[in-house]
From TrEMBL:
Domain of life: Eukaryota
Protein name, per record: Glutaredoxin domain-containing protein
Organism lineage: Eukaryota, Metazoa, Ecdysozoa, Nematoda, Chromadorea
Annotated transmembrane regions: 31-47
Protein's organism: Parascaris univalens
Keyword Acyltransferase appears in the UniProt entry: no
Glutaredoxin domain mapped to chain residues: 156-221
One Gene Ontology molecular-function label: glutathione disulfide oxidoreductase activity
Length: 247
């Protein structure tokens, strides 16, 4: 029995020593609670004051860089499309110019042959009759009806001049959409007989006589600058959608 009591005393002493070596959580909080609280508050303050803004700033810079890269990619893609469209227009312009030169040469040769066949004075008489007929056709031509019929029957019409840089600018803006020929017509006023009468009609209809004049869905949207600005803003795409030219 005595031996058993001795064991209990030894266990009690060992337990008290063990508890002394490992203090309880309550004891730790009593001794260091304020320090822990202050350290936690300080860490939260430093995070909110310095770390969090730095993280947000880095994230914003990264997002800005990605956005700039995306914008540059889009701009490069659009510039490539514009360059390709300009190249197509220039090539078509050169082909049309060569054809027009050839047609003019043939007309001159035919006129010379007719004059030679009619032996001089006869050629002059024939030429005079031809000029009178041409003047008569100009008097009979109604420029306003011509313009009205064109813009009401064709969704997209450009009144242009083949040598005009501003006209090329407007045509380049529209060429990006690759409009079908049945929905799109370019009228070169310097290549047709009644160009001046048509320009007078444009003044009555749109308030401006100069070219280019761009009509979409029967409405004049302006000249070269207005067309390019409409392309940049997305308004040109909307107008073509409303006119049923693109999908």
């Amino acid at each position: 029995m005595a031996d058993f009591e001795d064991y209990e005393e030894i266990d009690a002493e060992y337990g008290s020593e063990h508890r002394a070596a490992y203090p309880s959580l309550r004891r730790i909080m009593e001794l260091y609670g304020w320090y822990i609280l202050l350290f936690t508050l300080l860490a939260v303050f430093i995070y909110k004051k310095y770390v969090a803004p730095l993280i947000h700033s880095l994230a914003a810079e990264k997002e800005l860089e990605e956005r700039k890269k995306y914008d540059m990619d889009i701009r490069a893609h659009n510039e490539e499309r514009i360059r390709a469209a300009r190249a197509r227009i220039q090539a078509q312009y050169e082909v049309d110019a060569a054809r027009e030169v050839e047609r003019q040469r043939r007309r001159e040769e035919e006129a010379l042959e007719r004059a030679m066949r009619e032996h001089g004075i006869g050629g002059n008489v024939a030429s005079h009759r031809k000029n009178r007929g041409s003047e008569s056709s100009k008097e009979d031509f109604d420029g306003k009806s011509f313009v009205t019929n064109k813009i009401n029957s064709i969704p997209v019409v450009i009144f242009s001049k083949s040598w005009c840089a501003f006209s090329r600018k407007a045509k380049q803006a529209l060429s990006i959409f690759r409009l079908p020929s049945e929905f799109y017509e370019i009228i070169e006023l310097d290549e047709i007989e009644n160009g001046d009468s048509i320009q007078d009609a444009l003044l009555c209809i749109s308030g401006v006589r100069t070219v280019p004049r761009v009509f979409i869905g029967g409405q004049c949207i302006g000249g070269a600058d207005e067309t390019v600005e409409a392309l940049r803003s997305g308004r040109l795409n909307s107008l073509l959608l409303e006119a049923g030219v693109i999908k």
